[in-house]
Amino acid sequence: MMVYRVAVVAMAKPSFLRADQSMAGNLSFEHTSYKRRGDLVFVINPKGANGRTGKEWKKLVPYLRSRLGRDCNICESFTSGPSHAIDITREAIREGADAVIAVGGDGTLHEVVNGFFWEGKPVSTLDQGATHTTALGLIPLGTGSDFARTFGWKNDPNEAIERIAKGMKSRIDVGVISGKSGEPHYFINVADIHLSAKAGYHASRYKRFGNLCYFFGALQAFTGHSNRDLKIKVNDEQWEIFSQVTALCIGNAKFFGGGMKITPNADPCNGNFEVVILQDFKWYDFILKLHKLYKGTHLSVKNVHSRSVQSIEVEEIAGSGSIYVQSDGEHLGFLPQKFCILPAAIEMIH
Ligand SMILES: Nc1ncnc2c1ncn2[C@@H]1O[C@H](COP(=O)(O)OP(=O)(O)OP(=O)(O)O)[C@@H](O)[C@H]1O
């Protein structure tokens, strides 16, 4: 789908994006006859954090323009609904944007990351040769904003603008999920299975309560929950059985669920996931051990297993098709699924 169009004028390539006014949904870009330092496309979810993202963004724009506008072409693109950020990102990359910056929570970042890929391959710029890369940026303004926590970033847009102004970049890993059918799906933060994924599924309905949504989601997920026997295959080796699994979490970064440091050794730049498996947890274990899960000191707790992997395949032994899977806090579907790391897949502004 064409998300925005660049009016074509007769001029030497490249054609660049320029948008000095914002519009809901599709954008029209003017050309500039020269390339300034960078073309930045901001992808804003106005409904993020129960509408707070849109309000904060409005307040932020004058400062953003004064801080970055002299050196960069600034383009604002508002998402009109789920998945729109994926299309905006693909189009921006094809048109040669220097950075696509997600403005919102982990869900918006997740969609922008998925926009860096198309049919299993990285999206590339149409007419600037193989050397041009589009960087990923983030202004964290969501409910949980868990990915940002790994880097110690707060929901502070001014800090984020400084990072963009400095323009320090490094390559980070991305996870790819392939189920039995359909397109590969990408994640940047944490993918998780069973109880936590079910909790996240329910939490999305309570975002108006801020971080309390995770508590309400967890309460609902416990209703009718039972631990299940799973089999896993790590790095394409032998299948192993893990009995009575409560949750299995695959971290490219460390935090999920609004600040729980579930995969405390994960590092998005090291070419590995950290997998943490909780087995045979009862509801009261979460009460007794919750502080450890938030602090990331739970790896020494009984029935907690952790390892570093490049790929992991997970199936339920009973094959009920009812084990929830989420990635970056977004409901993905059900088991079976395979998760692989794509080392250094995206350049990120940090
Ligand atoms: N215009 C829109 N209207 C409704 N939903 C939207 C719109 N644009 C994007 N979305 C959806 O909103 C969801 C949540 O957005 P986002 O992650 O930015 O905020 P959040 O859920 O409050 O934060 P977090 O994920 O960090 O907890 C995304 O999954 C996205 O698909």
From TrEMBL:
Keywords: ATP-binding, Kinase, Nucleotide-binding, Transferase. One of its GO terms (biological process) is phospholipid biosynthetic process. GO terms for molecular function: ATP binding; kinase activity. GO terms for cellular component: membrane. Residues 35-181 form the DAGKc domain. The keyword Metal-binding does not apply. It holds the Pfam family DAGK_cat. NCBIfam families: YegS/Rv2252/BmrU family lipid kinase (TIGR00147). This is DAGKc domain-containing protein. It comes from Tetracentron sinense (Spur-leaf). The lineage of its organism: Eukaryota, Viridiplantae, Streptophyta, Embryophyta, Tracheophyta.
